[in-house]
Amino acid sequence: MAVAVIPPLPAFPLAQRMSRMKASAVREILKVAERPDVLSFAGGLPAPELFPVEAIAQAHAEVFADEGRAAMQYSTTEGYGPLREWISSHLGKSGLRVATEQVLITNGSQQGIDLVAKVMLDPGDLVLVENPSYLAALQVFSGYEASFAVVGSDNDGMKVDELERMVAERKPKLIYLVPNFQNPKGTTLSLERRHALVRFAQRHRILILEDNPYGELRFRGEHLPSLASLDDEGVVLNLGTFSKTLAPGLRIGWAVGPREIIRALTVAKQSADLHTATVAQRATARLLSRFDYNAHLDGLRVVYGERCLAMLGSLERHMPAGTRWTQPDGGMFLWVELPRGMSADTLFPLALEKRVAFVPGSPFFASEPRGEFMRLNYSNRPPELIEEGMRRLGAVIAAQQ
Ligand code: PMP
Asked: pLDDT tens-digit profile of 87-106?
């Protein structure tokens, strides 16, 4: 019997904006790096053994048993009332006072970034970002055809004193930053710079997008107030998430901020997904009503603090002279600067051969990418594997010198 040959379908012409939306280099790297024989410090993964899986499962079972039909029904775009109330009260305890109506539940904080870009940015608008910055936020802004103004950072975070000069050239529409334990650097914006940044944004009426997924994972030093809590003129939109504290699989985050922006985000979210999954929202609200969230956070801080310390010690022992790294006070990442002239992109395949992986730093730069950096994640491996991984990595770097 003759076999029919099906001709290939002609390619569909994609929207022009797709030419600006490159597949994340990091995603491609992660595919290779997550090979089971590789000790990977590449992914931004929390420690799965610390997910409160049983408590989350129990809360879901109760939702199905007690309120199954309501949980299966369509719901409001703003989110489940009791969950919004819990978030508003929880944020209040750290000094960020917002009414329940100012809380919008999102599908992770990643959706918050996307919605803010959708409601704020026209093609060609300028977004001011740290250089380097969270890669998936850069991708969002590129997707909405924004341009970037970049500002450098040091161990105290974004160099806020450079903003005045930059704004004189051209005013940005949005300032995006991760003030606590930044992704990728692990550094934190100092208190002085927080005040200065809020004053700057108020003076020029520029919206700050404060992305704060790691703020509750501080294992060293004093808690610093959020930018939103320092603002009394409605220039800060603050994003949070349960991804790093409960589990990313829940896909529950939130946006809080000025009422008119929250209203606009709600309209934009309607057209994106109608609402965040009702079952997950109800189960999370139920869980939080009786779960000792603060004790759980304390447990995460202890483990992540130990792992960070283990990585700092292992780097000290195994990295050749000329290698430098940041000293995070919380979060999940640190940032390594290789000895002069060395490229993390060149090093990556050599490291894979020795069964260790990291993320090369260049994709995190919105402009003027620099090749001599790598991001390391310490939350996902116990100290003994961190030691072995850094031993392998140190040997690969030393062999290049
Ligand atoms: N912002 C930053 C800085 C992140 O590192 C991440 C996760 N990698 C996110 C936002 C998105 O997190 P989620 O959507 O899971 O809340």
From this structure: 999 999 999 999 999 999 99
Residues 92 and 34 grouped into a single domain: no
Q: What is the distance in A from the centroid of ligand 1 to the CA of 213?
A: 6
What residues contact 136, with CB distance under 8 A and at least 6 apart?
24, 110, 113
| Ligand 1 center to 186 CA (angstroms) | 14
Same domain, 186 and 268: yes
Is residue 24 predicted with pLDDT exceeding 80? no
Q: Quick check: 243 and 109 in contact, CB under 8 A?
A: yes
Q: Give the sign of the dihedral formed by CA 215, CA 257, CA 131, CA 24.
A: positive
CA 87-108-42 angle, to 5 degrees, is: 125
Do 322 and 247 share a domain, yes or no?
A: no
pLDDT digits (tens, 9 = 90+) for 224-273: 999 999 999 999 999 999 999 999 999 999 999 999 999 999 999 999 99
177: left (phi over 0), alpha (psi -120 to 50) or beta: beta
For residue 44, what are the contacts with CB-CB under 8 A and spacing of at least 6? 183, 332, 333, 377
- Where residue 68 falls (left for φ over 0; alpha for ψ -120 to 50; beta otherwise) is alpha
**Ligand 1 centre from 293 Cα, in Å?**
20
pLDDT at 3: 64
The pairing of strands 126-130 and 147-151 is parallel
Which mutation among 243, 251, 359 tests ligand 1's pocket best, with the greatest number of atoms within 8 A of CB?
243
Q: Which domain holds residue 303?
A: 17-51+295-399
pTM of this structure:
0.95
